[in-house]
Amino acid sequence: MRSSGILLILITLIITGCFNQPTNGEGKFTTTINEQEDVINSHGMIVENREKLDAFIQDKKGTQRVVHYTIEGDPIFNDLKYTDHGIEMRHDNSEDKFGSPQVTIYNCQNLVRNETDKLLSYTLTGCEGEQAKLELLQIPFDVTKQDKFEFVLKYGVNLKNEINTIDMKLVKDLQNGEVVEVSDFGLSEQERGQIYKEMVLANYLGEKELSTECNRKPAVSYDLSVQINNGERHYLWTECKNTKDDGQMTDLAQAIIKIVQAGSIYKQLPEVKGHYE
Fold this sequence. Notes:
It contains five helices and 15 strands. It has helices at 2-16, 50-59, 189-201, 244-261, 264-267; strands at residues 39-42, 46-48, 63-69, 75-83, 86-92, 103-108, 110-115, 119-125, 134-140, 149-157, 161-164, 169-173, 179-182, 220-228, 231-238. It has a six-stranded mixed beta sheet. Strands 13-12-11-10-14-15 form a six-stranded antiparallel beta sheet, covered by helices on one side. It has a three-stranded antiparallel beta sheet with strand order 7-8-9, covered by helices on one side. α3 (189-201) packs antiparallel against α4 (244-261). The longest helix is centred in the C-terminal third of the chain and has 18 residues, at 244-261.
């Protein structure tokens, strides 16, 4: 009897499985969203915690929840788990008021990350059933699909450097009290596409916790304004990286600066003549 009881417990555990992250204390799935751990997708334009999904692919173990919000604001849950045979995904749209509530389990072999100049996608492949592939997440960054995309990035000590596609202006701080300015500055379509991609992957439309405090003297500051279609975003922060978002936005600014400095227009400007102490 004792052996039979142990066998029954083992069989039960195998059948039910275990998703550690999205379950409550009773082992039941929860629809509570963890804003620090879950990958949260709002129509591909705002994706929080994307790095968690990249780590899940790289580590090839554990669990990860991906939450998609519908246009009406209802969450759809995709709970991923590595198994001995690949990846299991539990798709739950029971919170979608405009859908047909159901929970579906998919068993697939791999989760593939694919990045191009216009799209970052995460796809489950080698899946059982009629669909061999399942699109888990897509993040588009095709700048040609936008009606308007312009930006102004000011940076450096006292924000003397400027990359301005609105007024077609490029300003370089020579750090000796002088600046040099280009009044007919423009980006190539390739450069615009690269910069827009960097902004989307930095989740520039998301809510940012940024700080202007910095104990370095002199300190490098950043001021970024983005005009996208009929909307506008503005961000101000320093190099001190007091918050996670400070670091992410600094990486974004440096990526933009690197793209512009690699261009022929910037290369024709005079070299920096001084330095700040």
